[in-house]
Amino acid sequence: MDRTKGPRTDPGALVSGLAAKLNELELAVTRQNERFTAVIEVGSQLASARDVDALLRTVMDRLTGLLDAEAATLFMHDTRTNELWSRVVKGASIKELRLPVSAGIAGHVFGTGKTLMLGDAYVDPRFNPDIDRQSGFRTKSIIAAPLRHVSGRVLGVLEVLHRKVDAFTSDDRSLVEGVATQIAAVLDNVLLLEQLRARSDELAQRVRDLDLLFGLERAASSSDQQVDLLERILQTAIDSVGARAGSILVAEEERDSLYFRNTRGEKSDALTSVRLKTGQGIAGYVAMSGETVRVERADDSDHYDKSIARKLGVSIGSVLCVPIPGDEGRLGSLELLNKKGGFTEADERLAVLLAGQIGRAFASRQSREEQERKARMAAIGQMLAGVLHDLRTPLTVIAGYAEMMADEPAEPLRREMAQSILSQLDHVAAMQKETLDFARGEKSVLMRRVYLHVFMRELEEQLMREFEQAEAEVKVVTTYTGAARFDENKMKRVILNLARNAIDAMPEGGRFTLTVDREGDEVIFRAADTGQGILPGVADRMFESFVTAGKKNGTGLGLAIVRKIVDEHGGNITFKTKPGKGTTFEVRFPAGVSAD
User: Fold this and answer.
1) Are the C-beta atoms of residues 334 and 246 closer than 8 Å to each other?
2) Please, which pLDDT band fits residue 547 given cuts at 50, 70 and 90?
3) pTM for the full model?
4) What are the tens digits of pLDDT across the range 262-315?
5) How many CB atoms lie within 10 A of CB 385?
6) Segment 280-285 long-range contacts (CB within 8 Å, at least 24 positions apart)
7) Averaging pLDDT over each range in 282-286, 352-356, 363-367, 377-381, which range is the top one?
8) pLDDT of residue 241
9) Which of 257, 315, 317, 534 is deepest in the core (most CB within 10 A)?
10) Which residues contact 115 (CB under 8 A, 6 or more apart)?
């Protein structure tokens, strides 16, 4: 037996085998080159991406093509809800998936941060088959890789699926990990960009809100009509959030109810007569509790009262209702209705700001009314002091005529004296009416035609009685004897107050001269005395209330009353004075009638 001879090898078969191996290696190298090139291209595309979502869909298509995979999902972590949500879904009928952060294979990979490759998902207890039941896809092989940033933070999970068992290789795993790394690097920048964009949008919304509030603040400072301002705020709220209707409801504590102060929208006019009991309906609940209600449908709220909508025949969809704050609790509520798609958190924030604006409008109005009330009470007190001041003249005349009547035997003279007393009592009644009218916020100037020769004759008689006890003398000059329109009783008060000041300025005697004249369309009264004159320190404040030159028993109201009456007649009063030489007051006002 020849041991040097062994089994013979067919050279042709050997060559064929080597060629097959070379082809296989060449195919493997080509495939690896393709995958390596694909990863490079994916990274380059992602790095220059502008529409990231569109590019991610392209990347997922390319990845499933390279792996011959049948489905793939890119899960992102939602930090607000702590869920994994499908940003991109490939090969499934479900548009969006949301999973608890620890659920299923994706949750396991997200939690551990390690890639997981399964040949048959259904034999692994971590697999959640519910998604297959929802999508109709039958999962077998899985590669799930974490989207890990260079910092180590896991942003999400890239999951690739196949219906066949053991469909993926270790090379496939490496490819998925490489693509996941590329995607993670880009998504970190994308998330930062999205946060910046969201922040920018939020700041832009804040700027718009501030612009609205600035406009309303400016309107509030220039508007005396609170109703007009509230109408503007309500319309602003409706327009800004896209509501179809809205109301401002105000609480009435004394009636334990709310009423519709301002309304806009369908059947809004009918709401003005409707009143809600405290706590009734969504608006009543919000006003009572101070809690905001925002629902997509009114029926979703336990506090919704259907009776009002049913009575008016309107349909209520989405509702946003916020409380109106006040200094001592809540004033009511701002209710916005029927926004298509429902109200958002941004709408709620704006509504809260506008409700605060409404509350400040109410507070400003209440403060203004309180100031006006205090000012009026002070003015009433001042007017009463003025009336008491001016009562001295008619009371002096009445007392004088009463004394004369007691000793006067002639009946005609007694009748004339009685008529004078009645005239003075009418003057007192007129002052009383003026005070009451002022207390009610009314102005009462009784303008009527007066003949100056008659007016000056009666005035001269009263002046004579004023100067009976004084050392000074009085002279009345009636240059103009025609007619004019003015309040006779009030103008008498003007002259008598000027005369009393003249008497006080001439304690050692002198002369008081009253003249009346007409220049063009104006009537002019001039009251001149030869007294001490007005001190420089007092002259600048002559017509202010409670300013006096130190006169005994002086109230400082006489010239303030004079100025007020002249102003009511549309006129003006001036004076000239020289120390030791005397003072002349000049009163001018429109005659109101043509010259005779």
Assistant:
1) yes
2) very low
3) 0.39
4) 888 887 777 877 888 888 999 999 999 999 999 999 988 999 988 888 888 888
5) 17
6) 280/305, 281/305, 281/308, 282/319, 282/321, 282/335, 283/247, 283/249, 283/258, 283/321, 283/332, 283/333, 283/335, 284/249, 284/258, 284/333
7) 282-286
8) 85
9) 534
10) 109, 143, 144, 145, 146, 173, 176, 177
Q: Are 494 and 589 in contact (CB under 8 A)?
A: no
Residue type, 500: R
Q: How many CB atoms lie within 10 A of CB 191?
A: 17
Render pLDDT for 156-173 as a digit per residue (tens, 0 to 9): 898 888 888 888 888 888
- Cα 286 from Cα 323, distance rounded (Å): 6
Q: What are 87's two structure tokens? A: 């940003």
In the chain, the domains with their CATH numbers are 21-194 (3.30.450.40), 223-366 (3.30.450.40), 445-590 (3.30.565.10)
The beta-carbon contacts of 186-194 under 8 Å, at least 24 apart in sequence, are 186/46, 186/47, 186/49, 186/52, 187/52, 187/76, 187/147, 187/155, 187/156, 188/149, 188/153, 188/155, 190/52, 191/155
CB 496 within 8 A of CB 466: yes
* Residue 254 burial by Cβ neighbours in a 10 Å radius (0-12, 13-18, 19+): exposed
pLDDT (average), residues 109-129: 90
Structure tokens at 175: 């490819």
Strands 473-478 and 511-519: parallel
First to last CA, the chain: 172
**Among candidates 514, 443, 525, which has minimal Cα distance to 484?**
525
- For the segment 569-590, the average pLDDT, to the nearest whole number, is 92
Q: Largest alpha-carbon pair distance within the chain?
A: 194
Alpha-carbon gap, residue 420 to 402, rounded angstroms: 10
pLDDT at 48 over 80: no
CA-based radius of gyration for the chain: 48
Helix, strand and coil in the chain, % to nearest 5 = 50, 20, 30
- Asked if residues 60 and 75 have their Cβ atoms less than 8 Å apart, the reply is no
> Cβ distance 137 to 129 under 8 Å?
no
Residue that the structure tokens 């005070």 belong to:
435
**DSSP labels, 455-507:** HHHHHHHHHHHHTTTSSSEEEEEES--SEEEE-HHHHHHHHHHHHHHHHHH-T
CA–CA distance, 357 with 385 (Å, rounded to integer): 42
Angle, helix 452-466 to helix 488-505, in steps of 10 degrees: 40
CB distance 316 to 301 below 8 Å: no
